[in-house]
């Protein structure tokens, strides 16, 4: 296996060879009050379990199925909420952007910028994000093979940014279905980049409902354990106090009252595999 890069986010060091970092929170910023509630729960539990933690929430979801779907508070108000969470709980924050003009403003608050899966090949967006100097979490598009992520890594490097994380979130398998191929983790790790597993979005059923994606959150524990068995650098997770009422991707969200049990099992699996001898087969 190639040497594994270490990405620094605030006080955190992220690498496939280190204990995993949690990128956890909620899908979209539904309200300031809910965001603070969710962030408080994550912070309390990750402190208790000694799990490195970056809070995640989106200020805008620009790729919803319906034009009438809730998108979030927008760049300015969303960054205000993220800045408050960052200061209140002393945690780094991550959020996705969809257009090049958002990159510079978001980077004034957001510690890790996220490149959405559907947009990961958009060169102008890649360059704008790279120029901020912030670490970038690149979601692997559902239509790309894992080895094609190397092209995107090189695009960022040529734009002057080598602080790249690669995120697995499932691959299209026929219509309205995603699958996670465990081989993808090893392929992406060969780039040296920390690999993050987006377990909740991998549970999506694209187009599964009349005006939004469906999901299979009942399988979230099983899928998480499968992903964490692959010696990866991070886990990406969205949780909600009442997934049935969530304004985006509720069918995939982990119920917030299951969060501690979920993370305890994730940590146990991560500790187990990273204490096993790594055996390479030619």
What this model shows, in words?
The chain is of the alpha/beta class. It has a single domain, classed as TIM Barrel, CATH 3.20.20. The protein has eight helices and 15 strands. A hairpin with a 5-residue loop joins strand 9 and strand 10. Helix 7 packs parallel to helix 8. The longest helix is centred in the first third of the chain and has 18 residues. The radius of gyration is 17 Å and the shape is globular. The termini are close together.
CATH class: Alpha Beta
DSSP, total strands: 15
pLDDT < 50 runs, ≥5 residues: none
Largest sheet: 8 strands, parallel, barrel
How far apart the termini lie comes to: 11 Å
| Protein structure class | alpha/beta
For the biggest β-sheet, the strand order reads: 3-4-5-6-7-8-11-14
Tell me roughly what share of residues is in helical segments.
25-40%
Tertiary shape: globular
Classified in CATH, the superfamily is Aldolase class I
Task: Describe, in short, the structure shown.
The protein is an alpha/beta fold and 282 residues long. It has a single domain, classed as TIM Barrel, CATH 3.20.20.70.
What labels would you give this structure?
alpha/beta, 8 helices, TIM Barrel, 282 residues
List the helices and strands and how they pair.
Elements: E1 7-9, E2 12-14, E3 21-28, H1 32-49, E4 53-58, H2 75-89, E5 93-96, H3 102-107, E6 112-115, H4 123-130, E7 136-139, H5 149-158, E8 164-168, E9 171-172, E10 178-179, H6 183-189, E11 195-198, E12 204-205, E13 214-215, H7 220-228, E14 234-240, E15 254-255, H8 259-274
Parallel strand pairs: 3-4, 3-14, 4-5, 5-6, 6-7, 7-8, 8-11, 11-14, 14-15
Antiparallel strand pairs: 1-2, 9-10, 12-13
Helix pairs in contact: 1-8, 4-5, 7-8
